[in-house]
Amino acid sequence: MDMITNLRTFLAVASHGSFASAARHLHVVPSVVAKRIAQLEKSVGSRLFERSTRTITITDAGQRLLPRVRHSLMEFEELLKDARRDDGKLEGHLRLMLPTTLSMAHLSNAIVEFMKVHDRITVETVLADRSVSPLEEDVDIMVSGRLAHYDGVSQVPLAPTNVLLCASPEYLAKAPPINHPSDLVDHTCLIFSPQGTTWAFESERGPLYVDVQARLASDDNHTLSRGVERGLGISVLPRYIARKGLDAGTIVPLLEHFPPQDRWYKAYIPRRKERLARVEAMCEWLRLAIEQLNAQGACNPIFGHCD
Fold this sequence. Notes:
By secondary structure, the chain is of the alpha/beta class. Helix content is 40%, strand content 23%.
């Protein structure tokens, strides 16, 4: 534990700007602080602070070490909390960033049920559809279907969201025939903004890519679904969004021999948090919730949502 104590002392000196102030914060005398810093400097092989009779200044080596020490100590504290739990129950706080449509459709119910099962967990949710690093927002788990990479952040695949190409009978009655994905270049399309105007389809010979023209672009699938039902054009929609229209006959599937590629949802997690028990448990819970959506109405009372 001497190294942990020395690292905590290093953080205190860096935060308070002097050995005396750090000593008061740590409830020790300044000579103890000086001894601990000297031990740490010997261990790392670099001077961490420049001393003068009146001030101390953190060195470049100290500046490089500081964020790593801060993150490591936070992780160590979390491990201690886990070790103190003797009843196997999860506890702690989770800050989640979730896509708006998916959360309103299903994840909000799943999260409430997770909290019902784990009564020591507290949760804060943020609904957002923009691309942002979870480190910038101090988020434990960010769920997104966007293709992205962030430094210091791990990607955990959750589940695909099954999608289909669809239109309304009204649109199809007046539009040119659609027998192949390449025919879409002659049609008006409604696109999901994060996916762009290039649509990908599966075929026996491999993926097919088609560049389409957007009459409507939106990051809200409900808006696209309404546009399809009103005959504005063709869209690629998640099945859980299109389901009511399919059942009512206001939306019909197209090109079922050339299905669009599914959209994968991933959990983006700061690396220092990915092994926390509550984070792992929430990721698994969210994975099951998204898979339930893919079941197209299958009832799973664990999430408090049955059709």
